[in-house]
Amino acid sequence: MSKLLLFSGTSNLKLAKKVARELNIKLRKLTISRFPDNETYCRIEEAIEGKHVFIIQSTCNPGNENLMELLIIIDAAKRSKAKRITAIIPYYGYARQDRQVKPGEPISAALVAKLIKCAGADSIITMDLHSKAVEKAIRMRKVHLHALPVIIEYFKKKKLKDTCVVAPDKGALKSAKMQAKMLKADVAYIEKRRVSAHEVVAQQIVGNVQGKNCIIIDDIISTAGTICEAARVLKKAGAKSIYVAATHGVFAGRALQKLSRAPIKEVIVTDTIPQEENKKRLKKLKVLSVAKLFANAIKRLAKH
Ligand code: R5P
Fold first, then answer.
1. 286 in a domain, yes or no?
2. 9 shares its domain with 142
3. Ligand 1 centroid to 283 CA: how many Å?
4. What is the pLDDT of residues 106-120, one digit of tens each?
5. Which residues are CB-contacts of 157 (< 8 A; sequence separation ≥ 6)?
6. What is the mean pLDDT of residues 35-55?
7. Domain CATH for 129
8. Which of 128, 266, 282, 283 has the most CB atoms around its CB within 10 Å?
9. Which pTM value belongs to this model?
């Protein structure tokens, strides 16, 4: 552990401090400021030559700035002769731009991976990437963590009775079945069906949710459109209560307002993205920490 140095960008300092605490080490000194024209300045204030440097930075909103900050820190570490550089990206932004839907579009998720590698990172530790395509696009050593154990643990402690895990779509059914097994719960899924030639879709539930405490677990809540619509359908079908959980609470646009009005008892996310301000605005928001998972991954990687 003596050769391990942990630095943090500015996007998620709270999580970085928690990870450092789990590892029983201190965050190392790094100055990050702005030039008068708003460009990012960074200086590593310690000798890092020959050391394994870990840099924590979620590339959440403002994604472009946080990504650039990460690239600049990696470059600084490379030029200061770090032996190895690991970028810890709890929330990997641009992950949903993982394929060309229309000709002429980029694959931004793959570009981000290339930029991180090109800046000088040797490996990445990240969590719940949006798709297999993003995972494949990261062509360097990677540790892909999952928040599910933390989320499952939370629900186990709640000791809810008559629970049903609901997949927000048929594609998520396989994961929902696994989650249901862990929670000794029933399983159901929401099916979207075309009702006219004009792409109008109706949602119906496959499975019984009547009088059940329903749990939906997704990877990300962005606009909250998916989850609020699912909650509305579940309520209509007689669900007793609805809990939604996701690894990444992006909460874009009017997501928080939508969630506060939706028939949802609790919204549970992790701290891959800072949630202090969101917690003030959404009382039913519960934040679980994934710091321990990252600390353990760092320990394992530092040994090799
Ligand atoms: C879909 O593939 C994802 O798992 C999420 O359900 C989706 O990205 C959530 O987006 P939004 O909150 O904007 O509906």
1. no
2. yes
3. 22
4. 999 999 999 999 999
5. none
6. 97
7. 3.40.50.2020
8. 128
9. 0.94
